[in-house]
Amino acid sequence: MVRKTKQYPFLLLLVITLSACSNQKPRAINIGEDNCAYCKMGITDNRFSSELITSKGKVYKFDAVECLAAFYNNADPTVKDNAKLWVHDFLNPDKWLSVNTAIFMKSEKISSPMALHLLAVSSDSEMVRIQQEFDGEQIRWKDLLNYVNENMK
User: Fold this and answer.
1) What is the domain extent for residue 49?
2) What tens digit of pLDDT does each residue of 91-127 get?
3) How many domains does the chain have?
4) 49, 32 contact by CB (below 8 A)
5) Domain contains 54
6) Under 8 Å between Cβ of 105 and 134
7) Is the distance from CB of 135 to CB of 102 less than 8 angstroms?
8) Which residues pair with 120 in a beta bridge?
9) What is the rounded radius of gyration, in angstroms, for the C-alpha atoms of the chain?
């Protein structure tokens, strides 16, 4: 009986620790209340907003894909390590996309908050639709990071 009571606190601590580490789902953006962790502007348009969640669960919110990319480019390796990066789907602004599955576009006809003209969508068919409307070019995440590094002021 004594053995079981000694194991209970350990198991409880283990469950709490594991649940805290796995909680890397995006949090809601509070439009008009949250500020961008990179540029400090208020977040006003969910179509462009994004988040980075560290492996320890710290959440950084951004007003634009380019702010997420600039922050990531300059982040300490401990922040980047196993971080989850999320962007909103431009056509479905309530839908979160991982940067690993999102399809990015750059178009001069898009007015993103930091004026680098970037957006994300979730599928090839959405990309075709958005390209027809805004005449943009698809850009991979790796290339987007380089583009932001060269063009963010």
Assistant:
1) 26-151
2) 999 999 999 999 999 999 999 989 999 999 999 999 9
3) 1
4) no
5) yes
6) yes
7) no
8) 104
9) 19
Nearest CA-CA partner of 59 in 18, 30, 24, 33: 24
- Average pLDDT per block of 10 residues along the chain, 153 residues long: 51 42 78 95 96 95 97 94 96 95 95 93 94 93 96 84
The reply to whether 110 falls in a domain is yes
Residue 17 lies in a domain: no
**Residue corresponding to tokens 């980075």:** 52
Residue 2 amino acid letter:
V
DSSP string, the chain: -HHHHHHHHHHHHHHHHHHHHT--PPPPP-TTT-B-TTT-PBP--TTT-EEEE-TT--EEEESSHHHHHHHHHHS-HHHHTT-EEEEE-SSSTT-EEETTT-EEEE-TT---TTSS-EEEESSHHHHHHHHHHH--EEE-HHHHHHHHHHH--
| Partners of residue 98 on adjacent β-strands | 86
Does 9 reside within a domain?
no
